[in-house]
Amino acid sequence: MTSDATSSGPPEPIVRNIPVIEQSIPSTDPLDYKTVTERYYSNLYQLDKDREKHHDILVLNHSNKICLITLAPTHPVLANKLVVKKVNFEVSKKVGRKSNKTSGKSKKGGQILEPTSVLAIIETETENFPVQAVVPGKLICINQVIISDPTKLSSHPDSEGHIAIILPSRGLYEQTKQNLLTKEQYEAAR
């Protein structure tokens, strides 16, 4: 028997050029990447009907339809860099948003909100600003962080400083969403 194979030793190792991890991605600068809010939420705005007051609200609409309510950049608290002393969730003598308790998948027990329902009252050194829910639905929770640290409302309005989370009503929300402005429409209206 004859063999055509001429193996005279171990096979040669395969050499690969693997770049350092920092060189394998386009940029390591954190400013080049979107925040969680930018990635998963669409910005919808409710402009105050009284354009002199500018009590504008930002609705951060998640892809699962959950809404975070916060202040728009043109709201006087943010635009004028007012110092927030307190975020008051006791909106009237009978209604306190702190007492909201929900349970289960459909968030039973959540307070029912109309678009004009007051979620909170932002107290500054010079003025108080009521914040409306804008979105009809159930109040899932209020942001406990801004109770203990109200400055988060100004420093991180689109993340840790949101005011509340709302589960929108199915039928009414689509109608309300059409009345809200997109980021482009908001920028043009400012």
Explained architecture:
With 190 residues, this protein is of the alpha+beta class. It is built from 7 helices and 9 strands, in the order ααβββαβββββααβαα. It has helices at 21-24, 36-40, 76-79, 145-148, 152-155, 170-179, 183-189; strands at residues 41-46, 57-62, 67-71, 84-88, 112-113, 118-124, 128-132, 137-142, 164-168. The strands form 2 sheets. The protein has a 6-stranded antiparallel beta sheet. A 3-stranded antiparallel beta sheet has the order 4-6-7, with no helix packed on it. Strand 6 (118-124) and strand 7 (128-132) form a beta hairpin. It is elongated, with a radius of gyration of 26 Å. The relative contact order is 0.18. The model has no long low-confidence stretch (mean pLDDT 85).
What topology does this entry show?
Blueprint (H helix, E strand, L loop, with lengths): L20 H4 L11 H5 E6 L10 E6 L4 E5 L4 H4 L4 E5 L23 E2 L4 E7 L3 E5 L4 E6 L2 H4 L3 H4 L8 E5 L1 H10 L3 H7 L1
Antiparallel strand pairs: 1-2, 2-3, 3-9, 4-6, 5-8, 6-7, 8-9
What would you call the structural class?
Answer: alpha+beta
Radius of gyration: 26 Å
Biggest sheet: strand arrangement = 1-2-3-9-8-5
Cα distance spanning the termini: 89 Å
How many β-strands, per DSSP?
A: 9
Number of helices: 7
Proportion of helical residues: 10-25%
